[in-house]
Structures are given as structure tokens and as C-alpha cells.
Amino acid sequence: MASTFLPFRNTYRYLQRQAHEQPVIFYSVVIGSFGPILAFGVPPIRKKFGWQPAERIPNSYPIPNRPRRPVQGYEDEE
Predict the structure, then answer these.
(1) Is 50's pLDDT higher than 90?
(2) Cβ distance 19 to 27 under 8 Å?
């Protein structure tokens, strides 16, 4: 039975040693491993709290439904 858990014990020892000898690399890997977990975990939590995406920005200005009148009253026509 003890031989069943031997790989896990060796992995734990290895991670312990790496955390002591090269903490920057070890903790960078630990923090980086949370990215994929959060990518799948955060959207359902946001939906549960009622978050809704913002309204899309319009791509064009709406043209009024009336005939166009020529511009008058400017002094640039000479």
C-alpha cells in the first residue's frame, strides 16, 4: 500500500525543494496555473450575480427619416 502513494510523496518533495531553491519559478507556475481555472470558473459566477454584458456600440449614425434640407445661413458662399 505504501508503494501506491510513493509517486505522490516524491512529487510533493520535489515541489517543496523547488519552492525553496527557485521560488520565483515555482510561484510563477502556481499563479499561472490559475488562469485556465479562472477562465472556466468566473463567467458562471458573474452570471449568477446578475452581470450582463454592456450594450453594443452602434457602428453608424442613424439617418433621420425625413427629406434633407439644404444648409442656409453660413457666410462661406460667395
Answers:
(1) yes
(2) yes
Q: 66-69, long-range: CB within 8 Å, 24+ apart, which pairs?
A: none
Query: pLDDT tier at 34 (50, 70, 90 boundaries)?
Result: very high
Cα(first)–Cα(last) distance of the chain, in Å?
101
Secondary structure of 52-77 in HEC code, one letter for each residue: CCCCCCCCCCCCCCCCCCCCCCCCCC
Rounded CA gap, 43 and 56, in Å?
19
CA–CA distance, 5 with 2 (Å, rounded to integer): 6
Q: Is residue 62's pLDDT more than 90?
A: no
Residue 16 grid cell: 517543496
